[in-house]
Design a protein that fits this description.
Two copies of one chain form a homodimer. By secondary structure, chain A is α+β, with helices and mostly antiparallel strands. Chain A has eleven helices and 19 strands. Chains A, B: It is found in: Peroxisome.
Chain lengths: 419, 419
């Protein structure tokens, strides 16, 4: 029995990502195969990431998982697909020091434990399932010494959550829709790494949604079945945009990048509205999205050349990508003018992430926010206190990492239970 | 000089209309030629119409016009186009009793006066320009004894305001986009008259807009120039829908009619959202449109077959078309539950038009409104007092009419000035 007491553990960190050419619509619901390619930017894991510890031990009698400290079921099809695909690629593992020896075909009988947590509020609706499935697959692959590269792993993560495949890389990432019926060629590739275009600054306006939104799975299905514009978008519009976006990213052409990003976000929401019954992700009760879009459009127009791009996913948060630090500094001033914190809020909790942007903007406390001038390009600019929960300042970031520091593990090294 | 003192006058009434297959986008801005056919239902002029008096006299030294009692300039291109086209078709007029004799080529030298008013609030954004230009052209044609039929006149009214061409007929009307470069074949035809499908009931929720909207001329131009979905809609989607809508109207197939009407309204707003910068007509701050759409969709879904269709133009008003009186009675109950009048409102001014619908619904005063049960198909139905300005109950109506009763004329029969 003594040799059966070992626990082998791996801890990994995976970023979240935001699409700049959107994924909306599956051609295969089980394999999660999309109707078009998509492109995303990976967000800095220092500010937004999932950390996952996976463990295996002959003493575990079933697969178990804890998400943000709470046990959840692994019986869902999406988890089962990921577990099955990774187990099929597991290899022999030997660690003489710890007395571990797992033969390739032992993996079918061994059970795993998974503990995962997000370093950002899950309720924020910031693609936590993308980072989560990417991290699960990446960590399990390392645990089981699978030889597949990150692109091959992305095709497995895709079966957990479509956009998860794009979280296997840093920088800018393309999810190639693929052609194969089994989905084997529907995977992510890195376009450029996070150093290629490192002057970009990303500011996320996190807002709490007061209304129940259509889940993206249901929404996509309805759009595929009823929108007469979706197929045109997928077949005619997106292929051209993907090429233009790849060029814009390669050449760090912010004007084209911003134009394509905004247009594609709007078109995704147009397809949602063309769905029967219509889906309104861009229609929050406080009108924040329209205010933000209007603010950005007016500013870009007044400057003659885009300073900022906006993009909105299937929820109310706004993701704003500023051309550079100077544009980001002006952007945070405009945003804080239009969306000041509630009177009792702590500025330190209202703008999180890379706070150096705030410092560059000369904002140290609430008084500085109150003293901000209205953006000159907006007539009768209104201040809407409390409409935004908080802002996250971040930038393009790197892909998955193994965390070798055992103190960061989420499972106890001996019991295999959450710490 | 004595023979110069006559004034010849004609007064006409023209209905407004609401498109069920939308017109959005011009292929020629000056001639106002659309990128697709459209279909509308004419609204009962008893509740929504324009009345216009036109007059000619050798004593008039310039063309003048009064709209709702206020003098406006006729120098705009759209007025000038209509006046020129009608003058070119003017014929000889003789009225021995009044001593009037106008030769065909006298019309070039004679000046006209126009007085026009809407029997509904102009600020309501209920296609007053459609009824207005249709009435102007129709009345001038009668004044000048032009021999053109209403379809031919519609091609002139179209040059005042595109959708005006559809107000030259009652019932259901198709605006054929045409092919000719000079626009001569871009005109309206009647599909069926107002008696063909007379069980339909139309309820309009009039809401005051708190935000400035994009004018439809500017919006259409931006959409044509920037939306990648508009051309697909115009070329691929609308031609099929026009055929299906014509069939549905011919067969009084309310299920198909409602499905097509709602889908086309949503697609029009989708194209607006796909425009750069995006146009948000469906995004009013009080969320009324989404509430109304959601209410209708849930009800139709719970009944298994559509009871009501919704359609929204380039403004915040909702136009609801109920299958029959029974559906309309239930609809007004649901609408009054969700959008009750302000506490101090007079129900008599809150539901106008055909008040017999209210009576059928058993609603006589505010207390009856307060006692309405929540619609069972809507979970946690909320009441939003004051979000709707008022409701108009109406039905499909007839086309333009000459008003022979001289007491209805808006100009003084001797001075030719507004009464």
């Amino acid at each position: 029995m003594a040799e059966k007491t070992w626990v082998r553990m791996v801890t990994a960190q995976t970023p979240t990502n935001i699409a700049v050419i959107k994924y909306w619509g599956k051609r295969d619901e089980t394999l999660i195969l999309p109707v078009n390619d998509s492109i995303s930017v990976t967000l800095d894991p220092a500010h937004l990431c999932t950390i996952t510890t996976v463990a295996v031990s002959p003493s575990f009698d079933q697969d178990r998982m804890w998400l943000n400290g709470k046990e959840i079921s692994l019986s869902g099809g999406r988890y089962q697909n990921c577990l099955r695909e990774i187990r099929a690629r597991a290899c022999e593992v030997e660690d003489k020091e710890k007395g571990i020896k797992i033969a390739k075909n032992d993996w079918e009988k061994l059970h795993v434990r998974v503990a995962s947590y997000n370093n950002f509020p899950t309720a924020a609706g910031l693609a936590s399932s993308a980072a989560g499935f990417a991290c699960l697959v990446f960590a399990l692959a390392k645990l089981m010494k699978a030889k597949e590269d990150n692109s091959e792993l992305s095709a497995i993560a895709r079966q957990g959550s479509g956009s998860a495949c794009r979280s296997l890389f840093g920088g800018f990432v393309k999810w190639i829709m693929g052609k194969a019926e089994d989905g084997s060629d529907s995977l992510a590739v890195q376009l450029v790494d996070e150093k290629h275009w490192d002057e970009l600054v990303i500011i996320i306006a996190v807002v709490s949604s007061r209304q129940k939104e259509t889940s993206s799975t249901t929404g996509m299905r309805d759009s595929v079945e009823t929108s007469l514009l979706l197929q045109h978008r997928a077949k005619e519009v997106v292929p051209k945009r993907i090429k233009q976006m790849e060029e814009a990213i390669k050449n760090r052409d912010f004007g084209s990048f911003a134009q394509l990003t905004c247009a594609d976000s709007n078109q995704f929401h147009a397809v949602c509205l063309d769905t029967c019954p219509p889906i309104f992700y861009m229609n929050d009760t406080s009108h924040r999205q329209v205010k933000i879009i209007s603010c950005v459009e007016k500013w870009n127009c007044s400057e003659g050349t885009p300073q900022v791009a906006y993009t909105f996913d299937a929820g109310p948060n706004a993701v704003l990508i500023a051309h550079n630090r100077k544009a980001a500094t002006q952007l945070i001033q405009k945003l804080l003018f239009c969306f000041p914190p509630s009177s009792d809020a702590d500025l330190n909790c209202y703008v999180i992430g890379d706070k150096s942007i705030l410092k560059d903007a000369g904002i140290e406390d609430i008084k500085d926010v109150e003293a901000l001038p209205p953006p000159p390009e907006i007539k009768d600019a209104q201040r809407s206190k409390g409409d935004v929960s908080y802002f996250i300042c971040t930038k393009p970031g790197r892909g998955p990492d193994l965390l070798s520091d055992e103190s960061l593990a989420l499972l106890h090294p001996e019991t295999g239970l959450p710490k």
